[in-house]
Amino acid sequence: MTLLRETDSPERRVEKLSRISDVLIDRIDRLEEMRGSAWSMFQAAVALEQEVEARTRELERVLADLSERNRELAVARAAAEEANRSKTRFLRAASHDLLQPLSAARLFLTALSDTDLDPFQQELTGRLAGAFESVEELMHAVLDISRLDSQRIEFHRKPVYLGDLFRRLAIEYAPMAEVKGLALTFVPTSAVVDSDPVFLRRIAQNLVSNAIKYTESGRVLVGIRRQGDQVWLEIHDTGIGIPPADRSRIFDEFQRVGREGVAPGMGLGLSIVRRACAKLGHPITVDSEQGRGTVFRVGLPIVAPDEDGLIRIVDKTPAALRGRVALVVENDPNMRRAYELILSDQLGMVPRLAGGTAEALATMGEEPPDVIIADYNLDNGDNGLTAINALREEVNLEIPAIMITAQRSSEIARACNEINVPLMEKPIRREELQLLLQRILS
């Protein structure tokens, strides 16, 4: 189609050419604008690419620095973990060497206390007993905290008869309460709970000890209260109470709450309670009124009996120990002599003494003992587990046995549990040994 016709007048032709010229100019302008926009976009893309490259290099430098810091942190963490393991190994090794003579001294002191003493000698033995108590308490606290801070700690949960626990605690703390003139009461119970028996006892020991320590007059009451599928172990006292401002810090290490005239303690007991309860999943609460007393509560899951009654309370009437034969396997001569005095003179038993497995087999003869009392650490790589197993195999009979150790070791506890041997930690008390002997021989 021709835009200009021959028939168009000059004016018409000028008009058409002007329009065509305007259209062409407009197109050229648009093309120029588009070319300018594309160039700007190209320039922006180049600048952005350079910025990305710069930021990428900077990010690579930061990541390399972070990787180096992570390597340094990993090395420092490994060193800290190794230092912690070394500390634990040292404490385990040192505990045996420290608790061995302490345990022997305690048994000798118990034997001495039962002899006729004049008032001055009685005072001296009482002060010695108090000193031993302080040393033992401190050592147990340090070792317990070390164990609870370890990530590799193993718990051995099993049904725990609270009635048995209460009887042991009553024997242990009755003298402490009597000295202060306090009424210490354990409400009888047949409840069975799921916990680690060793650590549950440490929790209860610390709470009862604290209650007695911070109560000047009145009473300390220990019992349980059932709530749903758990029971609350409750320790009530009529002591000095805890101010509201102090209730959040009493579970920290070396925090002492007291007033003049009240023994402040070391400030470790409640820290152990908090750590143990947290590891075992036992909730703990505290209610207190300053000047009127305190109540600590620990929540414990109930163990329900099976349909055939496998878990049930049995008659715990102690059997007579008099005349029963106890084979003691102990490499330390002082400890052997201490056992001999306690077992023969005070419990009426017949002790047979041996320093290791071979000597124990020779000492046993044809008649097996009624019970074996073996120390874990013996000489020349020998140990109490080897002795117990060898003695049982010799007569093809599972002789009742007790393992004594100064090591807080989950491996030893697990090995004892596998062969049905209760474990006692040094330093041992005569009352605890007597109660355990009565239980396993009944």
What does this structure look like?
It contains ten helices and twelve strands. The N and C termini lie far apart (126 Å). It has helices at 10-113, 119-149, 162-180, 197-213, 269-280, 333-346, 357-364, 384-395, 410-418, 430-441, and strands at residues 158-161, 183-186, 192-195, 219-227, 230-237, 284-289, 293-301, 325-329, 350-354, 371-375, 401-405, 423-425. 54% of the residues lie in helices and 15% in strands. Mean pLDDT is 79; it is low at 259-264 and 306-318. The strands form three sheets. Strands 2-4-5-7-6 form a five-stranded mixed beta sheet. The chain is an alpha/beta fold.
SSE run: HHEHEEHEEHEEEHEHEHEHEH
End-to-end separation: 126 Å
Query: How many DSSP helices?
Result: 10
- The overall strand count is 12
Mean pLDDT equals 79
Q: What spatial form do the alpha-carbon principal axes imply?
A: elongated
| Approximate helicity band | 40-55%
Strand order of the largest sheet: 2-4-5-7-6
Main sheet, how many strands, which sense, barrel? 5 strands, mixed
Structural class: alpha/beta
Structural Rg: 39 Å
